[in-house]
Structure formats: C-alpha cells, structure tokens
Specification:
Shape: globular
Number of helices: 4
Low-confidence stretches: none
Structural class: alpha+beta
Radius of gyration: 15 Å
Mean pLDDT: 86
Distance between the termini: 21 Å
Helix content: 25-40%
Oligomer: single chain
Length: 135
C-alpha cells in the first residue's frame, strides 16, 4: 500500500493540480481510464464543495492510499472547525447539492464527514475494474 499526501492552497486555480495527481496515482493503482475520469471529476467537485463553504479555509489536504485492489482518496480542510461554525460560514446549499449529486453519481463508495452544516472531509473509494491505463 502506498500513501501520497498533497497539501494545496484552497484556491480554485490549484484544483487542476489535484486532478492531475489523481490521474497519475489512479493509473498506478490499476484503475481503468474511464474510472480515472470519474475520479478526477469527483475530486474536483469535492475540492469545490470544501472551498466554497467559507472564505477562511487556507489549505486542502488530499490523501491518496492505494489498497492493492483500488484507490482511497480523502480530501479535507485544514482548519479548526470551531473557527468556522458561526463565524463566516457561507450557505451554498444549491451549489453543494449539485456537487454532491455529481460525486455520488460517479462514485458508489463515498462519505461526507460533517460537523453541523460544515462538510470538513470527503472520502471516496474506487475499486479497480480490469485493464489499466498502463496496458
């Protein structure tokens, strides 16, 4: 099992870095091209959901873990949740609903971790489905 940790500034222009890293790690984990494309979209939506909740989030942590049979990805905010709740929380329910719908449509094994109305982490698992992008 390999583990890759990526810390990026919580800015939209860095989501591309997460998408590219997802693609590379998923390929090494044995996922097919169509599975990799699904993960890239789900990871980008996850980053957007987490970043759009509050303006005070400075960093996103993305943890990739290969399992031998697939890939587990966890994306979380680097912020004390007590600083967010009741402080500068932006309610983007409609935007988050669409993002959540997209993620759950593409990834069957996904979990949204919350404290109150704040989603602080999103984890997903994609099992390898056959011929890989290396083949």
């Amino acid at each position: 099992m390999d583990s890759i940790l990526l810390n990026i500034p919580a800015k939209p222009e860095y989501v591309m870095v997460v998408r590219l890293t997802t693609s590379a790690v998923a390929c090494r984990a044995g996922l097919r091209v169509d599975e990799i494309e699904d993960l890239k979209v789900a990871v980008a939506e996850s980053c957007n959901i987490l970043m759009n909740q509050t303006k005070n989030i400075k960093q996103l942590n993305v943890n990739f873990n290969t399992t031998g049979e697939g890939l587990k990805i966890e994306i979380g905010i680097e912020k004390d949740l007590d600083d967010i709740v009741g402080n500068d929380y932006n309610n983007y329910d409609e935007q988050n609903e669409l993002g959540i719908y997209i993620i759950t449509s593409l990834i069957t094994d996904v979990n949204f971790h919350q404290k109150g109305d704040i989603i602080y982490s999103i984890s997903m698992y994609k099992k390898s489905g056959g011929q890989t992008c290396d083949d």
